[in-house]
Amino acid sequence: MKAQVLNNNNNQHHHHTYLNKKLKAKSLYCKQTPNNTNKKSAKMFASKVSDYENFFKRPAQPSNAEQFFRDTLDNGERRYDDLCRNIINDMNEYGLSVVDDFLGVEKGLQILNEVHGMYSAGVFQDGQLVNNLREEKLRTIRGDKITWVKGVEPGCANVGYLINQIDAVICRANTMKNNGQLGNYNIKERTKAMVACYPGSGSHYVVHVDNPNKDGRVITAIYYLNVNWDTERSGGVLRIFPEHGNSVADIEPKFDRLIFFWSDRRNPHEVQPSHRTRYAITVWYFDANEREAALNRIKNNKNNVKSTIDTTTTTTNATNRQ
After folding, report:
1. How much is the pTM?
2. Which candidate, 261, 160, 145, places its Cα nearest to that of 199?
3. What structural domains does the chain harbor?
4. How many CA atoms within 13 Å lie on the side-chain side of 273?
5. According to the model, what pLDDT value does residue 70 have?
6. Pick from 230, 175, 214, 209: which is nearest to 298 by CA?
7. Residue 279 phi/psi, 5° resolution?
8. Which of 55, 69, 128, 151 has the most neighbouring CB atoms within 10 Å?
9. In this predicted model, what pLDDT tens digit does every residue of 242-293 receive, in sequence order?
10. Is 225 exposed, middle or buried (0-12, 13-18, 19+ CB in 10 A)?
11. Residue 276 burial by Cβ neighbours in a 10 Å radius (0-12, 13-18, 19+)
12. What local confidence, expressed as pLDDT, does residue 69 receive?
């Protein structure tokens, strides 16, 4: 179920399930000849050139450099394609997909620092439900605190980078040939990113469905930011109950882990009690047709309510005149 891993720092590509090895990108050195050098400096430079020639099978001339960069881009494209193909296969078979080491440690920590900054600034609020409940009742259902960001706000550059990378994966997977169930959807829009914090002390979210009423959301993408997470001690597991299976999927909220699953009734899920601060960033992707139908329903409902109010007002006025 674990999809291929894409490291966007381009320094390693790690695939837990399929490859179990790391690939390191090569550095490119271009040889140059200095002008007006004395014998001592010329000798030192010749030694360096000799070292480079021993390192490479042939010196990197401009034409070779062009080919190197073309090959590097092709390798990057293939890595994206492999990642998306594995996600497609997982979504077809399991209804969810797990990608580990998505951005790498350095970028993941930069995102975590930005989230810490948001939390310290006091911008998080209690998560809400569609039907607004009293605060004490709400906390028995969901105990997270959230804030919504576009990724372009001050102090959100790295969160914005994460959103762009997830966008790239979803868009590519949605437009690839032979993309299975993903091909049934036309994904053009998404929500803002919801940054969530479960502040420990058993905070949780009971079993629910993200999109039970066809509001347009088709894919849920969650990125986790929890360094050295120990499920045995800290809990906080995301448990998914896929509709087409008798088993459950327990997803640990590990650092730099990205997961995808269908947002509708195919995947009821819960966040089990968390005994340590737990951070996640969630983005929902819309199917254009379902989203348009949902917006039309909302518009029609508003018009019907307005029509009812106008009719009631007119009837009342007529009665008063009598």
Report:
1. 0.74
2. 145
3. 71-298 (2.60.120.620)
4. 6
5. 63
6. 214
7. -110, 145
8. 151
9. 987 788 999 999 999 999 999 999 999 999 999 999 999 999 999 999 999 9
10. buried
11. middle
12. 57
